[in-house]
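Input sequence (97 aa), recorded before submission:
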Amino acid sequence: MSRRVKDFIEIKECSSLDALIQKLIEVRDGLPAASDAEVKMRGDDVFGRQLSISFYREQTVEEAECDARYANAYRESRDLSVCHVPPARGAKLRAVA
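Predicted structure, token format:
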């Protein structure tokens, strides 16, 4: 099963409009087909602003293996029966910080 992953590219500094356009063209040419790319301005006046390009790509083999490992561990943890033992009658609960 192939999954798509949302990935990001940030463009933090550009010296001129021509440099920004050239960088955007390079990014666009490197994107996978049907990536549904979006461009947003992120940041604020204190920490600065940057262009953020989000797009979808196919999962890598390593990412798929990692997902499968964690999915199996999650399924196994759900299969374990958890027994809840109520506190003994008259037992007092104490707050622990």
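Checked by second reader. Helices lie at 17-30, 61-79.
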